[in-house]
Amino acid sequence: MGKNLKEAMKMLEDSQRRTEEENGKKLLSGDIPGPLQGRYENGCAYFHEEEREGLAKICRLAIHSRYEDFVVDGFNVLYNKTPVIYLSAAARPGLGQYLCNQLGLPFPCLCRVPCNTMFGSQHQMDVAFLEKLIKDDIERGKLPLLLVANAGTAAVGHTDKIGRLKELCEQYGIWLHVKGVNLATLALGYVSSSVLAATKCDSMTLTPGPWLGLPAVPAVTLYKHDDPALTLVAGLTSNKPTDKLRALPLWLSLQYLGLDGIVERIKHACQLSQRLQESLKKVNHIKILVEDELSSPVVVFRFFQELPGSDPGLNAIPTPNMAPSAVSQERHSCDALNRWLGEQLKQLVPASGLTVVDLEVEGTCVRFSPLTTAAVLGTRGEDVDQLAACIQSKLPVLTCTLQLREEFKQEVTATAGLLYVDDPNWPGIGVVRYEHANDDKSSLKSDPEGEKIHAGLLKKLNELESDLTFKMGPEYKSMKSCIYIGMASDDIDVSELVETIAVTAREIEENSRLLENMTEVVRKGIQEAQVQLQKANEERLLEEGVLRQIPVVGSVLNWFSPVQASQKGRTFNLTAGSLESTEHTYVYKVQGSGVTPPQTPSGARTKQRLPGQKPFKRSLRGSDAVSETSSVSHIEDLEKMEHLSGGQDASEANSPERHPEAPTPPEAEQTGALQDRAQRLEDDRPQVEEPESLR
């Protein structure tokens, strides 16, 4: 009996020992603990600071796995059978060059796989074309080595068809690596089938730091491989304790947040994206690029305007019969407006974390990626609602500006002296440049005279206090100055705006010419006056004689026999540009010009406006948007103002000279009395003639 009890205890201990060994082995080489537990089976982890470093190590591991003699022969093995790494056209820029530099491979080892052009998303890898590329490489004697797929592209967050790509990789023995922001949704209970297929890949790279808002947290590359020797050679494992401490910041952060905290942050980011996406679907003239990705934490949208030859159901995609120039012009205009919209939204809602991206097909777009920004900026649902409201409020400005652009271009082209400048980067109504008389159209260098005229024009336009914004800057692809006209928030009278610019610039040019001519005339007049005064002094010396120039003798001689000399001087008439004698001034004691300078004509069109109406607003006559009572009162006010201005002009033109019996104003009576009193004092003063030398 004791013998049987001893055997039973031994069997129990062996069973317990086997259970503990299985549990330890499962913990070491089984599921990844944490949010991905149960998703990625039999995986190992490599922690690294640089996001691309893990992919470089995986490429080195794939090379050692496919080339058995690589450790002995080195790159001679690669020369006989060149490896090929396949990257998507929507991959992160510079990723292929980084891999070649780290692995010492030539650039021909990279193969760029295009995205779909006819069917499916334009940011997903074309699987059929990829298979054709693989077959062609095999026929050329190359070795398809590794494929990098995207679970959320860097630009718009699209996910490749990972399930189909996995089947293709298994067929040709290619290593499949997956990366992207959508891998964060694997921690959630509901995951899309395209992202869930990433759990069957050979390796993946995760960036929990930006996802959870944790600074100084390393990235993680998960991989499946059974040979520890190859992983050690590839650098994925290390025996150094310092390398093992890389995971310490991430482990502490995950322990602090806990599983529920991690899931809650990722879930909150996805809910913010879905909230904004649902709001933008109700807004006109806004196109969402990621509508099929229901679980994508990235929302990319842009403002668009339906073209005359396009189908509204195609979201302003131009038809084949449209001219390429019209399509390109419309594309550049919408890109500039979307860039302006993104900058405005970033200022109005800074907690949204918006970014402006330039896509190859769609153009300039606005991206909302709360998975990488919400944890840091503290984005809430109220911020998303405010963002949607701001987008709705900016739409009238965008549509109005886009509609007025073509009208502004036509008006400027038809106006003499103005040149329309086509600047694709300016989001406003347009850019205009005034061509002065001395403007060299063939030169692209800066023009000082033109800068002076445009600076004065800018000052005059800003003094009008209109709703438009004006700024001066260099011309697109040139150094000449131009006037940039900003966004229009209301119906603008473009013809009045263009006419005001042309007339004001012309007046500034004429005034500058008049000032230059006057400077030259004054300079010549001063020189002529100096010559005449010198001649007058010589004549006076000849008339008075030499004795009168001696100090003592001249005083005695002037005492006994004063010289009867008249006052001689010169005045310069700015209007006539000539010298005149001052004899008339001393005789009548009044300095008169003789010629009244004409009034400077104003070429600007004076338009009668209602009280409080700003410049460049269209007239309210004939407007159906105004109520009957308000329109009648506004029209009556306009008619009264026009009648009064017309009556004043007519009375001034037809009024005769003042009647002699008409009453004199009080100001005129006071002026006349002062003149009479001054005349009497002048008459009572004794007439003593001083020597001309003392004068």
Automatic annotation (TrEMBL):
Residues of the PDXDC1/PDXD2 second domain: 296-402
Any one Pfam family match given in the protein's UniProt record, by short name: PDXDC1-like_cen2
Entry keywords, A to Z: Decarboxylase, Lyase, Pyridoxal phosphate
InterPro entries: GrpII_AminoAcid_Decarb, PDXDC1-like_2nd, PDXDC1-like_3rd, PyrdxlP-dep_de-COase, PyrdxlP-dep_Trfase, PyrdxlP-dep_Trfase_major
Bias (Polar residues) ranges: 593-605
Cofactor or coenzyme needed: pyridoxal 5'-phosphate
Extent of Basic and acidic residues compositional bias: 634-643, 677-695
Listed GO MF terms: carboxy-lyase activity; pyridoxal phosphate binding
Coiled coil: none
Biological process annotations from GO: carboxylic acid metabolic process
Ranges where the PDXDC1-like third domain occurs: 408-513
Annotated region described as Disordered, given as residue ranges: 592-695
Family note: Belongs to the group II decarboxylase family.
Alphabetized PANTHER family for the sequence: PTHR42735, PYRIDOXAL-DEPENDENT DECARBOXYLASE DOMAIN-CONTAINING PROTEIN 1-RELATED
Name assigned to this protein: Pyridoxal-dependent decarboxylase domain-containing protein 1
Gene: PDXDC1
